[in-house]
Write a structure and sequence with these properties.
The chain is of the alpha/beta class and 312 residues long. It folds into two domains: 82 residues, no CATH class; 193 residues, Glycogen Phosphorylase B (Rossmann fold, 3-Layer(aba) Sandwich), CATH 3.40.50. The chain is built from eleven helices and nine strands. A six-stranded parallel beta sheet has the order 6-5-4-7-8-9, sandwiched between helices. Strands 1-2-3 form a three-stranded parallel beta sheet, covered by helices on one side. Helix 1 packs parallel to helix 2 and helix 4 packs across helix 7. The mean pLDDT is 90.
Amino acid sequence: MIVAPRRGGLRGRAADVALGLRLRRERFDLAIDFHGGPRASLLAWLSGAPRRIGYEIRGRGWMYTERVARPRELRARHSVENQWDLLAPLGIAPPSRAAYPMEMPADPAIAGAVGDRLARAGVGGDDSIVVLHVSAGNPFRRWPAAHFVDLVTALARDDDRQRIVVTSGPSERDAAAHVAAAAQERLGPARSHQVVACGELSLAELRALLDRASLYIGGDSGPLHVAATTAVPIVGLYGPTLPARSAPWRSPAYPTESVEAVDLPCRPCNQRVCEPGDFRCLASIDPARVFAAAKRALDAAPQSSTPERPRR
């Protein structure tokens, strides 16, 4: 793996040229550009690989030796299938969710540490863990905090065994703390212990936590797709994006629910400017709908204390 640091200005362009020359010295036989952006296509061309596969893009298609058509509009077709098109010139058959699921192996040492953290937070081995991820990479994919509070409250009141672990990315620790605290206050002393704050988790720790979980709920962000590498039932929340394009890529054997706004002419969007200005695609998703989806996902899950990991 060769990491390409992102730098701006003339210094960044010079670094890209230097990286391209380094790739050329490696004498790669094949370059596949899954990104398709100006920088990625430049690096593919600079690599000098005799076979370079990329999308047919105006002004840059000449940088590849083989080009694959890609419509300009957003299609209701999964991103994995869109990118898999680039493998067709190599004679590789179309993808199968069951045969080629997302993979992220769990680290046993980290799993042990996460288990200890849950125990210190009062989570027992017989408790049912719901992981609720409240953040996303941009405001277009963040469900309102008040909706999360309503959902946490409903989940806790529905089952005494339910322990709701609220997680977030580093930039939204305050939002996660607010959701947890507001839900605890609403639940009162008798049930506040059902809402668990475990502190910030790394991706590896989140992956280990999900092996213990009975359900994952979150927006269309990275952690949703970390959850897809496990057997945990999933409820995904979709605002500007389409489940048909962005839903977890995994075997249909594992329960996966998608909740989205419907009949909005501005969906899907490019997530640069919210035309109505109120992010209604997410704000209009009622917590009651998400709770109902959570119940369906839980009911469809195999009755075991620990979900079995997906296997190929």
